[in-house]
Write a structure and sequence with these properties.
With 558 residues, the chain is of the alpha/beta class. The chain is built from 20 helices and 16 strands. A five-stranded antiparallel beta sheet has the order 13-12-16-15-14. Strands 6-5-8-9 form a four-stranded parallel beta sheet, with helices on both faces. Strands 7-11-10 form a three-stranded parallel beta sheet, covered by helices on one side.
Length: 558
């Protein structure tokens, strides 16, 4: 399948919201990014709608439309939900704006809807089909074609209103090109899956951007056309409201919203439904809640009222084509999902920390999957990372954190902003002479330590790092670090017991002092001895000098 929805990698922040809302889990988590698996996607657009980071973007086909306009006459088919997206607009004012962009004309897709509803009535009256599912919603059709092959026979073999209308336009205007404009992403895929009828598909968002770029505005107007009942099609139950639901053999039902659609398809698959016509739409509220309606303009109640007011009471005056001209084939689209065996699932579950069936009951909703088993299958298929589970990561982090705290040789204590002990490890208990942590949990820290340093750190916001403190009550020296985490409203105290080191240091200082004192005494004694020796040497020298002088003098006299 072509890439109709793209990922803006820079915007994806691993929130898993798109995975969580994808009804068929066609999103692969890889390299920190949520990527759409196009072959499995049904183009419901849920990932686009729910993404909080605007990380998904719809393929822009405005350049293709511009090229069509250059090639010859182009007529726009405008989905009837336009009155919800462009409040106050009419098909006449829409046409005026589109002509300024270069379109030859604009008509409302509701004309094709009128043709389609009549064909539904014909199928019902034939009574040959046990269950009839409307085929206006291409996402429903794709869901059945890919995931419910057993339900394929129950899809009405009828063109969608978009196809029926564009076919009519081309029959009436040979050589003209057609561009459908509406609120749906999947219509891009439908146009390309059945080529030759619809040449290009634009969403309302694409059209709005184009109009803004060209400086064209859509005026408000009035429309009182009574023959326009098919304008109700984009609302929930709108198809049935246009039909003559007069067959006593059939039950007429409306099913919209992906969860309801899946439940209904399961019922049909299991053979629990008989003789019924089902108006089925992927979007809750039908097309007025389409994924490509402009986000700031989503007002389901107001939009439904606008459509109701715009619609007339009678059918469009349109010639009904033959049934063979409205036939639409549906085919099974095989998927190649590799499924793991029980052994592989159990191995992945063990890696996720799920060792018992009871543990498997913990949902992995934050990772996008309903159950741990479903997540394990996705891991096996390479669509999920084992670390995508928030409960698993939280448990792992808590276990890792608890292990570090409990085995740390340093005393660690966590206080709340009321200075109540929230957590204390065994090393800290030993420092403050506490037998069990439970003895002080929830108590004020003043019970075991002077709170001044904690109050100072909280008031100033300045942490204390490796400050040596003497805990006189416990006769211990510690190097104390105190940190205030304002975002989590906790105070963390880390104490390293340096009592033995301090005692050893003091002993060394004492020994050193004693050595210095002894050295001073020795030096002093040596100085005295030296002085005495020097004094004696001086006296001897003087006597010798006198004796030699006398000897010299006596020798001179001779």
């Amino acid at each position: 399948m072509a890439e109709y929805l793209k990922l803006k990698k820079s915007n994806c922040v691993n929130c898993y919201k798109c995975i969580r809302h994808c009804p068929v889990k066609s999103i692969k988590y890889s390299t920190g990014q949520a990527q759409i698996v196009s072959d499995e996607c049904i183009l419901c657009g849920q990932c686009f709608v729910v993404c909080p980071q605007n990380a998904k973007e719809i393929r822009n086909d405005v350049p293709s439309a511009i090229e069509l306009l250059k090639s010859g006459p182009v007529i726009a088919s405008v989905a009837p939900s336009f009155v919800a997206n462009y409040p106050g607009a009419t098909i006449a004012t829409m046409e005026k704006a589109l002509k300024q962009l270069g379109f030859t004309a604009a008509e409302e897709t509701a004309v094709g809807a009128s043709i389609v509803k009549t064909e539904y009535e014909n199928i019902i009256h034939e009574g040959k089909q046990e269950v009839i599912i409307s085929t206006c919603c291409h996402s429903v059709n794709t869901l059945v074609e890919k995931y419910y092959p057993e339900v394929l026979p129950y899809l009405a073999t009828v063109l969608s209103p978009m196809q029926a209308h564009c076919q009519k336009i081309k029959q009436e205007h040979p050589g003209v090109k057609t561009v459908f404009i509406g609120p749906c992403i999947s219509k891009k895929a439908e146009a390309e899956a059945y080529p030759g009828t619809v040449d290009c598909v634009l969403t309302f968002e694409e059209l709005s951007d184009w109009l803004k770029q060209e400086g064209v505005s859509i005026e408000q107007g009035e429309d009182h056309l009574e023959e326009s009942r098919a304008r109700l099609f984009p609302t929930s139950g709108g198809i049935l409201r246009t039909m003559n639901c007069d067959s006593p053999d059939y039950t007429y039902m409306v099913v919209d919203g992906i969860e309801n659609v899946l439940a209904a398809l399961d019922d049909i698959k299991e053979g629990r439904l008989k003789k019924c016509f089902i108006e089925m739409s992927i979007c809750a509220g039908s097309c007025i809640s389409g994924p490509a309606m402009e986000r700031e303009k989503r007002r389901p109640i107001t939009d439904a009222i606008a459509v109701n007011r715009y619609a007339g009471k009678k059918d469009f005056a349109v010639e009904q084509p033959s049934s063979k001209d409205l036939i639409k084939d549906h085919r099974f689209i095989g998927l190649h999902r590799q499924m793991p065996g029980e052994k592989e699932i159990q191995e992945i579950l063990r890696k996720m920390g799920k060792n018992t069936p009871e543990q498997e009951l913990n949902l992995t909703g934050p990772a996008g999957y309903n159950t741990c088993r479903e997540k394990a299958i996705a891991v096996y298929q390479g669509k999920a990372d084992i670390n995508m589970c928030l409960p698993f990561l939280t448990q792992k982090a808590e276990s890792f954190s608890d292990t570090i705290i409990s085995t740390s040789p340093n005393g660690i204590m966590v206080l709340n902003e009321d200075l109540e002990v929230q957590q204390i490890n065994s090393a800290a208990c030993q420092i403050v002479n506490i037998r069990h942590a439970s003895d002080v949990l929830g108590d004020q820290v003043i019970r075991i330590l002077d709170p001044k340093v904690f109050l100072d750190v909280m008031s100033t916001g300045r942490s204390v790092r490796d400050e040596k403190v003497y805990l006189a009550e416990y006769k211990r020296y510690v190097e104390q670090t105190v940190i205030y985490d304002k975002s989590y409203h906790i105070v963390i105290c880390i104490m390293r017991d340096v009592t033995e080191e301090e005692r050893e240091r003091m002993n060394k200082e004492k020994i050193s002092q004693q050595t210095i004192e002894m050295t001073d005494r020795v030096i002093e004694k040596q100085m005295r001895m030296a002085q005495e020796i020097a004094s004696l040497l001086g006296e001897t020298t003087a006597e010798t000098k006198i004796a030699l002088t006398n000897l010299k003098d006596s020798l001179g006299d001779e």
